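Posted in: Structural Biology > Protein-Ligand Complexes

Title: Requesting predicted complex, phosphoenolpyruvate in pocket

I'd be grateful if someone could produce the C-alpha coordinates for the following input. Sequence and ligand are given below.
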Amino acid sequence: MRIPCAYANWKMNKTLFEALDFVYKFVPGLFSEIKEGSIGVTIFPPAPFIWPMRQELGESSPIFIGAQNIHAEKEGAFTGELSGSIIRSAGATHVLIGHSERRNIFGEDNAMIAKKLGRALRDRIIPILCVGENLRERESGKAKEIVEEQLAMAWEGQEVTGGALIAYEPVWAIGTGKNAEPKDAQAMAEFVRDWVARYFTPETAGTMRILYGGSVSPENISNYAKLPDIDCALVGGASLDTKAFLEIAKAIAKAGPGGAV
Ligand code: PEP
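-- Reply #1 --
Done. Output follows.
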Protein backbone atom coordinates (compact mmCIF):
# COMPACT_ATOMS: atom_id res chain seq x y z
CA MET A 1 0.00 0.00 0.00
CA ARG A 2 1.48 3.33 -1.06
CA ILE A 3 0.39 6.03 1.37
CA PRO A 4 -0.20 9.27 -0.53
CA CYS A 5 2.00 12.13 0.57
CA ALA A 6 2.45 15.87 0.39
CA TYR A 7 6.02 17.10 0.81
CA ALA A 8 6.85 20.76 1.34
CA ASN A 9 10.17 22.16 0.14
CA TRP A 10 10.50 25.57 1.76
CA LYS A 11 13.88 26.28 0.17
CA MET A 12 15.48 29.44 1.66
CA ASN A 13 12.28 30.95 3.00
CA LYS A 14 10.58 31.77 6.33
CA THR A 15 11.86 32.90 9.71
CA LEU A 16 11.79 30.61 12.75
CA PHE A 17 8.66 32.33 14.01
CA GLU A 18 6.92 31.79 10.66
CA ALA A 19 7.97 28.15 10.57
CA LEU A 20 6.52 27.47 14.03
CA ASP A 21 3.38 29.42 13.20
CA PHE A 22 2.91 27.18 10.14
CA VAL A 23 3.02 24.07 12.34
CA TYR A 24 0.56 25.62 14.77
CA LYS A 25 -1.97 26.27 11.99
CA PHE A 26 -1.30 23.35 9.64
CA VAL A 27 -1.57 20.37 12.00
CA PRO A 28 -5.14 20.95 13.28
CA GLY A 29 -6.27 21.64 9.69
CA LEU A 30 -5.22 18.17 8.58
CA PHE A 31 -6.11 16.33 11.75
CA SER A 32 -8.66 13.79 10.46
CA GLU A 33 -6.59 12.87 7.40
CA ILE A 34 -3.51 12.34 9.56
CA LYS A 35 -5.45 10.33 12.13
CA GLU A 36 -6.85 8.06 9.42
CA GLY A 37 -3.35 7.64 8.00
CA SER A 38 -4.58 8.70 4.57
CA ILE A 39 -1.72 11.15 4.00
CA GLY A 40 1.96 11.40 4.90
CA VAL A 41 3.42 14.87 5.29
CA THR A 42 7.07 15.84 5.38
CA ILE A 43 8.27 19.42 5.63
CA PHE A 44 11.76 20.40 4.48
CA PRO A 45 12.46 23.70 6.25
CA PRO A 46 15.75 25.60 6.35
CA ALA A 47 18.16 23.45 8.38
CA PRO A 48 18.22 25.55 11.59
CA PHE A 49 14.46 25.00 11.95
CA ILE A 50 14.58 21.19 11.85
CA TRP A 51 15.03 20.76 15.59
CA PRO A 52 12.60 23.48 16.79
CA MET A 53 9.93 22.26 14.37
CA ARG A 54 10.40 18.68 15.55
CA GLN A 55 10.01 19.89 19.13
CA GLU A 56 6.92 21.92 18.28
CA LEU A 57 5.31 18.92 16.55
CA GLY A 58 6.18 16.56 19.40
CA GLU A 59 7.88 13.18 19.27
CA SER A 60 4.73 11.26 18.39
CA SER A 61 3.54 13.51 15.56
CA PRO A 62 3.11 11.66 12.27
CA ILE A 63 4.43 14.72 10.43
CA PHE A 64 8.05 14.27 9.45
CA ILE A 65 10.76 16.86 9.10
CA GLY A 66 13.37 16.54 6.39
CA ALA A 67 16.59 18.25 5.35
CA GLN A 68 17.04 19.98 2.01
CA ASN A 69 20.62 18.79 1.65
CA ILE A 70 23.24 16.42 2.99
CA HIS A 71 27.01 16.23 2.54
CA ALA A 72 28.47 13.12 0.96
CA GLU A 73 31.13 12.63 3.63
CA LYS A 74 30.43 11.25 7.08
CA GLU A 75 32.14 14.15 8.92
CA GLY A 76 35.12 16.43 8.68
CA ALA A 77 36.45 19.84 7.65
CA PHE A 78 33.58 20.99 5.41
CA THR A 79 32.65 24.42 6.73
CA GLY A 80 28.99 25.22 6.32
CA GLU A 81 27.96 21.70 5.37
CA LEU A 82 25.65 19.26 7.16
CA SER A 83 26.36 15.56 7.61
CA GLY A 84 23.81 12.77 7.84
CA SER A 85 24.35 12.36 11.55
CA ILE A 86 23.94 16.12 12.12
CA ILE A 87 20.59 16.31 10.35
CA ARG A 88 19.39 13.03 11.81
CA SER A 89 20.29 14.02 15.36
CA ALA A 90 18.39 17.28 14.80
CA GLY A 91 15.26 15.28 13.98
CA ALA A 92 15.31 14.91 10.18
CA THR A 93 14.16 11.55 8.88
CA HIS A 94 14.14 12.45 5.18
CA VAL A 95 16.45 14.30 2.83
CA LEU A 96 16.07 15.83 -0.64
CA ILE A 97 18.78 14.71 -3.04
CA GLY A 98 19.34 15.90 -6.59
CA HIS A 99 16.93 18.83 -6.49
CA SER A 100 17.30 20.79 -9.72
CA GLU A 101 18.39 23.90 -7.79
CA ARG A 102 21.24 21.89 -6.27
CA ARG A 103 22.10 20.51 -9.71
CA ASN A 104 21.89 23.80 -11.59
CA ILE A 105 22.87 26.50 -9.10
CA PHE A 106 25.34 24.53 -6.99
CA GLY A 107 26.76 22.37 -9.78
CA GLU A 108 25.88 18.97 -8.32
CA ASP A 109 26.30 16.37 -11.03
CA ASN A 110 25.06 12.79 -11.15
CA ALA A 111 28.30 11.52 -9.60
CA MET A 112 27.96 13.85 -6.60
CA ILE A 113 24.29 12.96 -6.25
CA ALA A 114 25.22 9.26 -6.17
CA LYS A 115 27.60 9.94 -3.28
CA LYS A 116 24.94 11.86 -1.39
CA LEU A 117 22.41 9.10 -1.99
CA GLY A 118 24.92 6.57 -0.67
CA ARG A 119 25.48 8.72 2.42
CA ALA A 120 21.74 8.97 3.12
CA LEU A 121 21.37 5.20 2.71
CA ARG A 122 24.30 4.49 5.03
CA ASP A 123 23.03 6.99 7.62
CA ARG A 124 19.49 5.61 7.39
CA ILE A 125 17.83 8.81 6.23
CA ILE A 126 15.03 8.36 3.71
CA PRO A 127 16.12 9.90 0.41
CA ILE A 128 13.81 11.69 -1.98
CA LEU A 129 15.72 11.51 -5.23
CA CYS A 130 14.69 14.31 -7.58
CA VAL A 131 14.99 13.72 -11.29
CA GLY A 132 13.78 15.64 -14.32
CA GLU A 133 14.71 17.05 -17.67
CA ASN A 134 15.18 20.66 -18.69
CA LEU A 135 13.19 22.34 -21.45
CA ARG A 136 15.80 21.76 -24.15
CA GLU A 137 15.95 18.08 -23.27
CA ARG A 138 12.16 17.75 -23.37
CA GLU A 139 11.86 19.58 -26.66
CA SER A 140 14.52 17.41 -28.25
CA GLY A 141 12.71 14.24 -27.13
CA LYS A 142 15.41 13.26 -24.65
CA ALA A 143 13.43 13.52 -21.40
CA LYS A 144 13.30 9.78 -20.67
CA GLU A 145 16.94 9.27 -21.60
CA ILE A 146 17.97 12.02 -19.17
CA VAL A 147 15.80 10.72 -16.34
CA GLU A 148 17.06 7.18 -16.87
CA GLU A 149 20.65 8.40 -16.71
CA GLN A 150 19.92 10.31 -13.48
CA LEU A 151 18.34 7.23 -11.90
CA ALA A 152 21.00 4.80 -13.05
CA MET A 153 23.91 6.99 -12.00
CA ALA A 154 22.38 7.79 -8.61
CA TRP A 155 21.90 4.13 -7.77
CA GLU A 156 25.01 2.72 -9.39
CA GLY A 157 26.62 0.35 -6.94
CA GLN A 158 23.84 0.71 -4.37
CA GLU A 159 21.78 -2.34 -3.68
CA VAL A 160 19.00 -0.96 -1.53
CA THR A 161 16.40 1.75 -1.89
CA GLY A 162 16.42 2.65 1.82
CA GLY A 163 12.71 3.40 1.55
CA ALA A 164 13.51 6.04 -1.05
CA LEU A 165 10.90 8.03 -2.92
CA ILE A 166 11.50 9.41 -6.39
CA ALA A 167 10.29 12.87 -7.34
CA TYR A 168 9.76 13.60 -11.02
CA GLU A 169 10.28 17.33 -11.35
CA PRO A 170 10.66 18.71 -14.86
CA VAL A 171 13.12 21.57 -14.39
CA TRP A 172 11.14 23.95 -16.59
CA ALA A 173 8.09 23.53 -14.31
CA ILE A 174 9.81 24.36 -11.02
CA GLY A 175 8.85 27.75 -9.66
CA THR A 176 7.73 28.92 -13.11
CA GLY A 177 3.96 28.54 -12.91
CA LYS A 178 4.20 26.15 -15.89
CA ASN A 179 3.00 22.59 -15.35
CA ALA A 180 3.74 19.32 -17.04
CA GLU A 181 0.81 17.95 -19.00
CA PRO A 182 -0.74 15.30 -16.73
CA LYS A 183 -0.33 12.69 -19.48
CA ASP A 184 3.39 13.51 -19.74
CA ALA A 185 3.79 13.39 -15.93
CA GLN A 186 2.03 10.01 -15.86
CA ALA A 187 4.16 8.67 -18.74
CA MET A 188 7.34 9.67 -16.92
CA ALA A 189 6.17 8.31 -13.55
CA GLU A 190 5.34 4.99 -15.25
CA PHE A 191 8.75 5.01 -16.90
CA VAL A 192 10.39 5.62 -13.49
CA ARG A 193 8.40 2.79 -11.90
CA ASP A 194 9.39 0.43 -14.74
CA TRP A 195 13.03 1.38 -14.21
CA VAL A 196 12.74 0.58 -10.50
CA ALA A 197 11.14 -2.78 -11.37
CA ARG A 198 14.06 -3.60 -13.68
CA TYR A 199 16.82 -2.34 -11.40
CA PHE A 200 15.37 -3.63 -8.12
CA THR A 201 12.26 -5.83 -8.26
CA PRO A 202 8.65 -5.46 -9.43
CA GLU A 203 7.61 -5.66 -5.74
CA THR A 204 9.86 -2.73 -4.87
CA ALA A 205 8.46 -0.78 -7.80
CA GLY A 206 4.93 -1.56 -6.66
CA THR A 207 5.51 -0.09 -3.22
CA MET A 208 7.73 2.85 -4.13
CA ARG A 209 6.05 6.22 -3.96
CA ILE A 210 6.55 8.60 -6.85
CA LEU A 211 6.00 12.32 -6.49
CA TYR A 212 5.26 14.95 -9.10
CA GLY A 213 6.75 18.38 -8.52
CA GLY A 214 6.60 21.57 -10.56
CA SER A 215 4.32 24.52 -9.78
CA VAL A 216 1.76 22.37 -7.96
CA SER A 217 -1.09 24.49 -6.57
CA PRO A 218 -4.51 23.94 -5.00
CA GLU A 219 -5.99 24.62 -8.44
CA ASN A 220 -4.03 22.00 -10.38
CA ILE A 221 -3.25 19.25 -7.81
CA SER A 222 -6.31 17.17 -8.75
CA ASN A 223 -4.86 16.77 -12.27
CA TYR A 224 -1.87 14.93 -10.80
CA ALA A 225 -3.32 13.27 -7.69
CA LYS A 226 -5.60 11.11 -9.84
CA LEU A 227 -2.79 9.70 -12.01
CA PRO A 228 -2.11 5.97 -11.50
CA ASP A 229 1.66 6.23 -11.04
CA ILE A 230 1.77 9.46 -9.04
CA ASP A 231 1.16 9.06 -5.32
CA CYS A 232 2.43 12.32 -3.90
CA ALA A 233 3.47 15.88 -4.65
CA LEU A 234 6.64 17.80 -3.87
CA VAL A 235 5.53 21.38 -3.45
CA GLY A 236 7.73 24.45 -3.36
CA GLY A 237 6.11 27.88 -3.64
CA ALA A 238 2.57 26.85 -2.69
CA SER A 239 3.80 25.02 0.43
CA LEU A 240 4.81 28.32 2.01
CA ASP A 241 1.17 29.19 2.45
CA THR A 242 -0.57 27.15 5.16
CA LYS A 243 -3.99 27.27 3.52
CA ALA A 244 -2.70 26.37 0.05
CA PHE A 245 -0.60 23.46 1.32
CA LEU A 246 -3.51 22.19 3.41
CA GLU A 247 -5.76 22.19 0.34
CA ILE A 248 -3.11 20.34 -1.65
CA ALA A 249 -2.59 17.73 1.10
CA LYS A 250 -6.32 17.17 1.46
CA ALA A 251 -6.77 16.71 -2.30
CA ILE A 252 -3.95 14.15 -2.36
CA ALA A 253 -5.40 12.27 0.64
CA LYS A 254 -8.81 12.18 -1.06
CA ALA A 255 -7.42 10.83 -4.31
CA GLY A 256 -5.53 8.01 -2.56
CA PRO A 257 -2.42 6.22 -3.81
CA GLY A 258 -2.04 6.33 -7.53
CA GLY A 259 -5.33 8.17 -7.69
CA ALA A 260 -7.44 5.27 -6.38
CA VAL A 261 -10.23 6.72 -4.25
C1 PEP B 1 10.37 22.30 -5.77
O1 PEP B 1 11.09 23.15 -5.30
O2 PEP B 1 10.65 21.09 -5.65
C2 PEP B 1 9.16 22.71 -6.50
C3 PEP B 1 8.45 21.80 -7.10
O3 PEP B 1 8.88 24.04 -6.48
P1 PEP B 1 7.53 24.74 -7.03
O4 PEP B 1 6.36 23.98 -6.46
O5 PEP B 1 7.58 26.14 -6.55
O6 PEP B 1 7.56 24.62 -8.52
